[in-house]
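Q: Convert this sequence to structure tokens.
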Amino acid sequence: MRSLEIFSGAGGLAKGLELAGFEHSAFVEFNKDAYASLAVNFESNKIFFGDIKAFDLNSVSAIDLVAGGPPCQPFSLGGKHKANHDSRDMFPYAIQAIEKLAPKAFIFENVKGLLRHNFSDYFEYIILRLTFPDFFAKPSMDWHDHLMQLRMVTKRHYSGIRYNVAFKLINAADYGVPQTRERVVIVGIRADLGKSWAFPEPTHSEDRLLWEMYVTGEYWQKHKIKMSHCPHIEASANEKRDYLKDRFGLFEPEFQPWKTVRDALYDVPDPRTQHRFADHIFRDGARSYAGHTGSDFDWPAKTIKAGGHGVPGGENMIRYPDGSIRYLTVFEAKRIQTFPDDFVIKGAWGEAMRQIGNAVPVLLAEVIGNRLMKILNGDTEKLARRLVSINQPTSAVMAPVASGTN
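A:
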């Protein structure tokens, strides 16, 4: 199936979809370093380097999937919170691609801040525009008035293309990514195909990691570590062990354990030693202070971040059990975002970390891509039963937005 990647970034979503079997027809990317990364890892002749406003949608055809991550700064919890008033809001151009190409499906990813209560009306507008892409606003009509009309759409006065749209706040750690990364994923399938989307069920859990740390000790045995060498673990071990036994009794938690930084980097040498990885370069100067503590080595990493507001929680640092810290190398950050080891990220350390922080974890993209490929191909065996769809009254659909932001 052929896909168009818009707001491609370094290509995390694109790589995951490629592993799931999608064939990329074109990429659109504005940032020069991200473009350089794409050009090394994918077919450079398929990449449009420039503003999406200048990309000719007529240059691609027979597109089955439109995918991408519209710039998230307008909705970021660490940003200026301007939403549709921010010139960086690119959702209108994502919707335009759906209007023009009428793909079988689309996947868009954005930050958790998109679900903030003060953005709820605009988020509802995005969902309804994606649901009824041919229901255009009248000249000079603003989005508020258009939203009021979209809320009243019925089959009697809309005969255009319709999408069944679902959205969910997903934690990448629940799917095997060694990082607690919460992002909103929006998936739409063209209604005339008669297909129903269900988000993949989680495969990993925090409880299982705690169980293997405090009850069975499997985590430490796997890494050939004695608990006596982990005083920060021993101090709370009894309390957590009692909690887990009370909760689960003799039955261990389901799923696999969350992956930790140690799990991700188990075979990666210290960057200050001789090694063969070109992008595994030690960077000095890491500092720890209140609220800026880095990612614990024996826990999923904090969300690797990007943007002009820095990384206030020290998300780009590792904190070892002995309290020592250092910056992640580009290679280590790639591992945490589940990029293949040979995936090339262009640019200096700060720029490379920006691209990695903006990316969709490759593994998560592959999981979602695999599910979508099965649905579009008619293979619904073992699909999850949970279905979140906008194909119901608007008030019922949008209720989770308000409740999810408290």
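The chain has two domains: 2-202+360-403, 205-339.
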